[in-house]
Amino acid sequence: MKVAVVDINGKETGRKVELSDAVFAIEPNEHSVYLDVKQYLANQRQGTHKAKERAEITGSTRKIKKQKGTGTARAGSIKSPVFRGGGRIFGPRPRNYGFKLNKNVKRLARKSALTLKANEKAITVIEDFNFDAPKTKDFINVLASLGLENKKSLFVLGDSNNNVYLSSRNLKRSEVVTSSELSTYKIVNANSVVLFESSVEGIESNLSK
């Protein structure tokens, strides 16, 4: 699959890049995409939630009323979950929400996500560029040239580029990653994926193993 390369102003340069069918034109496996996104979101959870159960509540241990003759249910402790201020029944405890996912499944998920974006014509290849200094206004101009100012966009660099990364950091709808940091969630979450020309080789190399 050939895609035209555009410049920083959104105009075609006259060159085209060949995107590998083994990465950008496979039969999408949506279940693998679901699993990879689920794992990514699960790993974002801190899992530090904690509620006190009755053994951890501070309170008197005396029997609060006699066993019989009150006409109400038996009660032996003020820390019982049935009373206000008592312990919580089966409350949340600290835990790790992460789960294992096979590397081949994760690789298939990323290729499926890229294929789906390619099918939607949501992948753009731009020639490599850099800024003289980190400046958000310069990055906004690039977004405007590509028609992405009001869309979620994901820019994929071939190598780390500090000026481009810092220029995008204040923009909520745009994210800049390197080809090695590319994840299924970030691909799916973006309306448009913009690949730096130098990133194509790295993506295909990582996903063709």
TrEMBL record:
The gene is rplD. It comes from Spongiivirga citrea. Part of the 50S ribosomal subunit. The lineage of its organism: Bacteria, Pseudomonadati, Bacteroidota, Flavobacteriia, Flavobacteriales. One of its GO terms (cellular component) is ribonucleoprotein complex. PANTHER family: 50S RIBOSOMAL PROTEIN L4 (PTHR10746), LARGE RIBOSOMAL SUBUNIT PROTEIN UL4M (PTHR10746:SF6). Residues 45-77 are annotated as: Disordered. Keywords: Ribonucleoprotein, Ribosomal protein, RNA-binding, rRNA-binding. One of its GO terms (molecular function) is structural constituent of ribosome. This is Large ribosomal subunit protein uL4. Forms part of the polypeptide exit tunnel. Belongs to the universal ribosomal protein uL4 family. One of its GO terms (biological process) is translation.
